[in-house]
User: Fold these one by one.
Assistant:
Number 1:
Amino acid sequence: MIRIVLPAHLRVLAKVDGEVSLDVKGEATQRNVLDALEARYPTLRGTIRDHVTFVRRPFVRFYACEEDLSNEPLDEPLPRAVAEGSEPLLVVGAMSGG
Amino acid sequence: MSSVRVLVGTRKGAFVLSSDGTRQKWNVDGPHFGGWEIYHVKGSPADPNRLYASQTSGWFGQIMQRSDDGGKTWTTVDNKFVYDGPTGPHLWYDGTPHPWEFKRVWHLEPSKSDPDTVYAGAEDAALFRTTDGGKSWHEMPGLRTHPSAPQWQPGAGGMCLHTIIQDPANAKRMYVAISAAGAFRSDDGGISWNPINRGLRSAQIPDQDAEVGHCVHRLAMHPSRPNTLFMQKHWDVMRTDDAGENWREVSGNLPSDFGFPIEVHAHEPETVYVIPIKSDSEHYPPDSKLRVYRSRTGGGEWEALTKGLPQRDCYVNVLRDATSSDALDPFGLYFGTTGGQVYASNDAGDTWNAIVHDLPAVLSVEVQTLS
């Protein structure tokens, strides 16, 4: 079971409170986790990554285990602690504003 | 008794303001989609309880919302806006080619006859349409692939398609306007388009009367005179009486002919309203006085309407989609400001009251007249 923490705006869109837990088919990679997330919550399609190219939106970041995984390859395995569910994958809206 | 519903899009959510036909006491509902930019909310003329909203965010992109109960509840609908076919370049700010990229929906124009059909004007400029109530959106690519498109260039706000007008007398005829490409007309239901910018002059482009490249801010039409359009351009207020084939300036005695919105009286096709702004580098009213200007002569001669509007120390702007009108008699006119006020007049502009003072910056205002 993969645990995901979404930013507040996306929790509202997905109509969830707190963390999301997902069964992910295959290896726990960014691509597989996001595929599973969007399949469970279709309203999140296009909000984290592009509909067609699957490129991460520029102001969205992925953190886990105190590491920034945003620029890791999509098919790279996520840290073991994320794959095992002991640590969440954090989807974060980048800090900006005035 | 009739009533009115004012749909307000702001930088931080949508608000629904409602009143009976006297338009004196208002109920304020919102924010809906708090924290998100709501570029536009508009209701279907064919089913006034069917509303559509464009919800956007620099972080999370485009979301589309639909309501079937006049804005009480909302459902997320499809947000996949993909250009149909190869996307060539347009000009970037520095004059270099830049690939077309979808950023957001600026304007929604529901069909006059079918609540499931809506046109959407996008940045980078393109026209999309749904015919299934928002379950899917498809580009009408004839506009974006016009031979002049590689010469289109964004204005400071982006290269946005912000105005869509359906000709009430001819279902095949539509108008759109793009900053900073100009105005375009289709006579075949949106399949093909031609620029209609003859008569416009813009000092900001190398060829001042070029076929395209003009920063048109807004078009307005009275339904009884579909060949007459009024335009607020970056500078200049313009008019055509031959469906855009030729334009002439009607700025007349305005204190500034820069501005964003333009509106036509619901019952008087020669009565037009603009809200002058000092300049393109100072987006606030001339002399720090917020004044609506009304022409009862189809342009040329303008009178200032000031009662109830701030006449000192006012530095707000009124954006291109932030005026609207009702269809009641006496005629009601509405506008929202970047300072978060929504002003209403229930006497054709003679006097004004703020329905609300302290909303987030207002991006759009649409009014529904309900019976």
Note: The mean pLDDT of chain A is 95.
Number 2:
Amino acid sequence: MTPETLTPEHDGPQTAAGFSSVAAVFDPVFARLEHWADLVERYAARPDRIADRADLDPLMESLVRREFTDSEGCVIGAGFVSAPNFLGWHLAWWLGGQNPAVSGLPATGIRHLETVEDPLDESFRDYTALEWWRVPEQTGRRHITGPYVDYLCTDEYTLTLTLPVYRAAELIGVVGIDLSVDEIERGLIPRLGADGVSVTVINSSGRVVVSTDTHLATGALLRLPGLSEHLNDQSGGAPGLPAGHTFQWCGQTGLAIVAGPAPS
Amino acid sequence: MPQSIRAGSGTRAAIFAPLDGAGRAELVLQRLTDAIVLGVLHDGERLPSEAELARQLGVATVTAREALEILRRNKLVHTKRGRDGGSFVTFAGRGATDLQDERLVAWSRVQVRDLGVHYSAIAGLAAELAADRASAADIENLERILDRADAGTADAARRGQGTFRLEVAALSQSARLVREELRLQAEFGSLLWLSLRDASRRERCQAVQRATVAALIAEDGARARQLTVTQIIESIEWLIEAKSLLELKGRSTMTDSTATVSTTAVLPTGAPA
């Protein structure tokens, strides 16, 4: 599917099942982001033309529009965010008709996100400091940010998937998709279930994305002895969790799966 | 996605969110007035066009026009014709102070206290949940916000408090609490934190913000909630005291047949806004 399709590094019966479930939900989204990144990279690499938002924005809009019509509500926002040295401070970002703030629009309507792009404006904020930019910039890889309440944009409980875009070795931006956590839950929970086992998908802060354990709310921090050692250790060599628990990173997404005995 | 691209744009989104129910022109008027008085819409800022405003708020164009007309009469916006024309916010601090005072006098003590109860329910639980759910990175972000905060003026302190409360609400991970926090800030923020006109209250507010962050670090939800609720109660009591003084002043000036009343002139401890 993509060069970076999720593959389990070692199998545990519960984490393997969880792994393929997480892959089934996120791999297709990352595949589309790879496609967008590829198109933007090809656009930026044209030898004789200067990159211009007047060209790139319509290109992104046509890609993004398809996303909203195909996704059945899962996608709440999508687009390309430019590095300041590429198109200046710029978000080519669109929101779907699902957004309650634009409920007056027809269901197929999308709207461009307006932001302050003038660094001298008092309201301007440097997005390159934010996790969805910072992590892909540092690692050169895909990343999943959240879950978080996106109160500046849609008020939705959101996961943001981003992928860096390069011109030669230079970072020129990230492509990204915001997914509704509600929809992720609907997609994941039915696939995670296993008798006597509770399976929890967490992010790299240990925050619960979804869990089959009734006592674990999405958004809560999973508190488990030894978990933070696992989260700080990308090599997989951290000491064990309490008996009966397994830990598994989901490729390079920043998500991990913890399985353990279901509470009786 | 663009979390924190624009500080305060969440409250802006709440301002332009669709309205439902009766009395829409009044609601449009109230919401825009509050936004201007609160400083969410800045002096000199261009408002959306009548048609755009109507579309965003989900009201008829005539309703939006009516609200804009009253805003013009209240000298909160002015309209320029021509190519660069439109409705622009004309907000001078003086007019805002009078408007806030008028509103405070118009509200009953019961209404003011009930606002405090409602806001405590939202902000208190948000703080309690945040203590359980904030990661180390979240705490660092909050601390950065406090380090950058400016409490030099009432407006700056109010914006700072709005940002802080919104960030804490976001840490609760509850979309409903965040939406309610935004709605309450957009509709009542200017009234609720009127006490920040007072320099000593501004200092105290910052101290409470620091103490709240310490409670979040200690994962002490009960303490975070208690600090939040106490801060709101104190602000409400300041409002009721200010209201009493305005009413006293109003009664005496009525006999003096003088028209205007302002808390900045009469508050016992209040530094002028």
Note: Residues 13-44 of chain A form the longest helix (32 residues).
